[in-house]
Amino acid sequence: MLRFRQFGTLLGFFLILLFFTVKLPDTFLTYRNLINISQQLSMLAVVAATMTIVMVMNDFDLSVGSMASLSGIVAATLFTLGYPVWVALLAALLVGILGGLFNGFLVSVVGILPFVATLGTLTVFSGIAFLISDGKTIFGRDIPESFSGFARSGLIIGDVKVPMLSITAAIVIFICWSILEHTNFGRRLYAIGGNKEASYLAGIKVVRLRLIAFSLTGLGAAGAGLMYAARVASANPTQGSGLMLDAIAAVFLGMTMSRQGEPKVIYTLVGVLILGVLDNGMTQLRVDSYVREILVGIIVIAAVAIASLSKRSQ
Amino acid sequence: MQSLTFSNMSKAFEGVTALADVNLKLSSGRVHALMGENGAGKSTLIKLIAGVLKPDSMSVSKNGIPLKIKNAKDAHEAGFHFIHQELNIVPQVSVAENILIGENLPRKFGFFVDWGKVRTEAEKALDFLGATHMDVRAYAGELPAGDKMMMKIAAALVSADRNEPTLYVLDEPTAALTGDESEMLFTVIERLKGRGAAILYVSHRMDEILRICDDVTVLRDGKFVSTNEIKETSKDKIIQEMTGRDFKNAYPQRNNSIGKEKILSLKSVNTDNLCNLTFDLQAGEILGISGLAEAGQSHLLKLFMGIGNIRTGTAYLSGDPLPHTPSDAWTRGVAYVPRERRGEALCLDMSVRANIVLSSLVNYGFYAKPWREIKDAFRLGKKVKLKSKGLIQAARQLSGGNQQKIVFARAIQGRPKLLLLDEPTRGVDIGAKYDIYLLLRELSRQGCAVILTSTDLPEVLGICDRVLVMQEGCQAHLIPTGEMTSAELLAYCYPHQEVTQ
Q1: At a CB cut-off of 8 Å and minimum separation 6, what does B285 contact?
Q2: CA spacing 20 to 30 A to B365: which of B14, B218, B252, B383?
Q3: Which DSSP string corresponds to B71-125?
Q4: Helix or strand (DSSP H, E) at B291
Q5: Tell me, what's the pLDDT at A1?
Q6: Residue B56 carries which DSSP code?
Q7: Using alpha carbons only, how large is chain B's radius of gyration in Å?
């Protein structure tokens, strides 16, 4: 049963792949499309991987979507004010870290439930983004070529051009994986998720670690916001809002695959792939995007339901 | 006379046998003791009866008529009532609601809850128990441990009044009770017997078993060993059956190992919930903390873990002020075994290995060192005689005693100079207790100072060099254990009372 629970989601993923391969024989399983998918889901991958860091501690960050929007707006506004690209990027990432630190402060120092605290900062960040941009989309000549060009460029490997966005996502995933699986920092985050009180009494600096973890998630969200802004060569105060639900859905899908139901970066990546592949395939099949949303919701519920049912029957 | 028979009870977890073909016959109006070391299968047996675990095989019959117990609801309907060692209470609602939990609350107009009646019924049950001091409107979570147990017993009583009681299962009911409260419980058990219920009683306290039980069944390693009438067996025989070996001395020989170095030094210390603490602790000394339930024992230990503010007075750990956080305490050589294993000590879903090395992760540097963790966890596990199916087994799957050994393994990893133990042998069987005592002796020989709280008075007297008695959060007496008897020590625990010589 444990086996089935762990591999059920993976099996589902292959069935989805198989379905699209059969339905779209000419376009789905091609280099071009796979590269395309990897680029489409690179932002989600970055947010989901860094979201895993807080979810390991049984925490949440609902503010990642509006943080992504905010960081794009911050960078674009600084572009229009004539600051060099690197200053704007650094400032946007700094905003991410500070926003994350603020989340961490509310959650671990003040002691507000993550759900409530980050729901609050979600609207705060979003409000700031609207305030700075005056509710308008920043685009056109204001966005420097060197910034938006990054999203269009790629590394030529063999005869395939791998987009820089995909490479960035891969690097972020690798870093998150290394942090969670191969450092004692990560091992302690898992312990906090296992039992906060016990970890505290065993000498783990719970408050400090939660602060750091939340700021890493904020940093990831800001990074994803920049990637998004570069890809569409514009910034608007709502463009990141879809990321949060998908990122949490990806982590939940991943959690159905692990031994004790704990989040792991590798499994989160599988969750991201499931969502990305669905998105891509259904767009090609011209399925209405509303139908896609219904399906994504059902898939997440089904995967988690099967996992918890099979856990209960042990 | 009614009888209740459980036969061929078997259960294996992932291929490892926890209970093999055990039979149990209970009769109404008799108290049946279930004994065995931790991991002997007692908890598994109870969970099968409760319908919480799915048995591999089990048949139940009442007066020869088969009963189906497939889930917790079946057990409830069959009239089985459970009072567990790990109390499952609903902390955020009132005592009255907790007592009537599982029953339909009385209604007004068939719809609104009749709160007045809820309270009277709850009060009636508490009065029956003699626990008149309890306020049924209080939040259950704020009760002292003993009162929580009283509340659960009252809940079982209420449910017995409404349904025909067949069986009560009491799992270590006295672990959190003081002497007086235990006496109250024993009277209740007598009354339940009178009503014709069968009682299955699990406890590690031999004296209780001999006093209140009629029959005893002993399990060892998941197998049935014997069922005897209490009057036909003896303490020594039961212990011998439980452990498979003879036990002459319950406590290992004391060694003269009190060193010169002063580990702790407190002078008239007052904190938010403690007062008047004045004592020194030398290296190698074992200090016991006694008192009635919740007299401040846990607060005192936590003070040395850096939890709690010193208002007045001075306190030093090896000449420096006390640690200010648990993390600071561990780095300075203080180790801690908390009272609540599940709530405060273990990450239950994580591996044995992760749980053992938890406090030492800081010393492993930046990168995780799985091999070093495995090596350390293996060495420490062996030292505390931990029995597990390997280091990757989840802590949840181990028996209570072995879970406690994990926490001990963690505590001794950093070679502590001060070891704080809060009820370290609670819910731990005799064999595992002895292992723990031996370990304490060894640590003390190596110069580690130990502070230990325990409600088991013979244990305090058998293990400790001195005992500090607390009353209502204050230091009341500091006495060398010497030739003191349990009765004398108990007398010291009560406030405002002359000690009879």
Answers
A1: B258, B259, B263, B444, B449, B450, B465, B466
A2: B383
A3: SHHHHHHTTEEEE-SS----TTSBHHHHHTTTSPPPEETTTEE-HHHHHHHHHHH
A4: strand B286-291
A5: 46
A6: S
A7: 24
Q: Residues with Cβ < 8 Å from B96, sequence gap 6 or more?
A: B118, B119, B121, B122, B123, B136, B137
Tokens matching residue A211: 């602060």
More confident residue, A187 or B253: A187
A2-23 vs A265-284: helix axis angle to the nearest 10? 30
pLDDT bin (cut points 50, 70, 90) of residue B412 is: very high
The residue among B412, B424, B395, B396 whose CA lies nearest residue B337 is B424
DSSP letter for A240, please.
Answer: T
Interval B56-76 mean pLDDT: 87
Give the residue from B19, B72, B17, B67 showing the smallest Cα distance to B50.
Answer: B72
- Predicted confidence (pLDDT) per residue in B276-317, tens digit: 999 999 999 999 998 877 788 999 999 999 998 999 999 999
What is the DSSP annotation of A169-205? HHHHHHHHHHHHHHBHHHHHHHHHHH-HHHHHHTT--
pLDDT at B497: 46
B347 vs A183, A186, A194: nearest CB = A194
Contact A258/B at CB under 8 A: no
Report whether B378 contacts B371 (CB < 8 A). Answer: no
First to last CA, chain A: 8
The answer, yes or no, to whether residue B498 has pLDDT greater than 50, is: no
What is the residue type of A262? E
Instruction: Measure the CA–CA gap between B75 and B114, rounded to whole angstroms.
Output: 28
Q: How far is B350 from chain A (nearest CA, A)?
A: 7
The pTM assigned to this predicted structure is 0.79
Residue B37 · residue B220 · CB < 8 Å: yes
Neighbours of B163 (CB within 10 A): 15
Would you call B371 an interface residue with chain A, using a CB distance cutoff of 8 Å?
no
B501, pLDDT greater than 70? no
CB B44 within 8 A of CB B12: no
Q: Which residue has the tokens 């492993």?
A: B364
Give the minimum alpha-carbon distance from A207 to chain B in angstroms, rounded to a whole number: 11
Residue type at position B129: L
User: How does strand B107-108 pair with strand B112-113?
Assistant: antiparallel
Among residues B42, B5, B7, B12, the alpha carbon closest in space to that of B27 is found at: B5
Residue B249 in tokens: 């001395």
Q: Please, are residues B432 and B401 in contact by the beta-carbon 8 Å criterion?
A: yes
CA distance B46 to B456: 25
Q: Do B327 and A185 touch (CB under 8 A)?
A: no
A199 neighbourhood in chain B, CB within 8 Å: 347, 358
**How far is the C-alpha of B449 from the C-alpha of B411, rounded, in Å?**
13
| Cβ count near B135 (within 10 Å) | 14
For residue B397, the chain A residues in CB contact (below 8 A) are none
Per-residue pLDDT of chain A (314 residues), as tens digits, is: 456 667 888 888 999 999 999 999 989 989 889 999 999 999 999 999 999 999 999 999 999 999 999 999 999 999 999 999 999 999 999 999 999 999 999 999 999 999 999 999 999 999 999 999 999 999 888 889 999 999 889 988 888 889 999 999 999 999 999 999 999 999 999 999 999 999 999 999 999 999 999 999 999 999 999 999 999 999 999 999 889 999 999 999 999 888 778 899 999 999 999 999 998 999 999 988 888 889 888 988 888 887 777 666 55
Pairing outcome for strands A160-163 and B310-317: unpaired
Nearest CA among A202, A196, A213 for reference residue B355 = A202
Indicate which of B358, B371, B392 best probes the interface with A, i.e. most A CBs within 10 Å of its own CB. Answer: B358
